[in-house]
Amino acid sequence: MRSDVLNKSSNKYNFLAKMASPKLVFAGEANVTLTEAAHCGKIVVMDAASIKATLPDISSTGQNGSKYVIVLAGDYSSVSLDTNSAKFLASCGVSATDDGDKLTCDSAKEGDWIEVTGDGNDWIITGMGGAWSDSGA
To answer: pTM above the 0.85 mark?
Structure first.
């Protein structure tokens, strides 16, 4: 599957070549619900417009210290990251969100990314590139 995605996208993933031995998970062109087993500590590559990644339920899975990184493989109209009923704490220039809000990267560009870490109660934005903002529920 990985080679199919890379071949199909014809050089969209050049920015990944700069990373040393990345552990990549390709979300492809569908919405994805992140899980600790499949996505935690890896780079999740999203490759479609208006695609959404949903974080794990922070209260039921004990996500204290769990880190998730989303990287966009192309230029898209809108990509979002859903908190799954939790909230994002204020960080990296983004104001705190309400429970259940999502972050959106409108007019997303190839290579835009966001990294979030769970504290057991909420999600903390620990790094980002691109224009991510609170888009409500």
So the answer is: no
Pair of tokens at residue 10: 């014809």
48-71 pLDDT, tens digit each:
777 888 888 887 666 777 888 988
Given a contact cutoff of 8 angstroms between Cβ atoms, the answer to whether 103 and 114 are in contact is: yes
Give the CB-side neighbour count of residue 2, counting CA atoms within 13 A.
7
Give me the residue label for tokens 């959404």. 52
Indicate the SS3 state at residue 23.
coil
> How far does Cα 4 stand from its chain's mean position?
22
Q: How many Cβ atoms from other residues are within 10 Å of residue 94's Cβ?
A: 16
At residue 130, the 3 state secondary structure works out as: coil
The gap from C-alpha 56 to its chain's centroid, in whole angstroms, comes to: 12
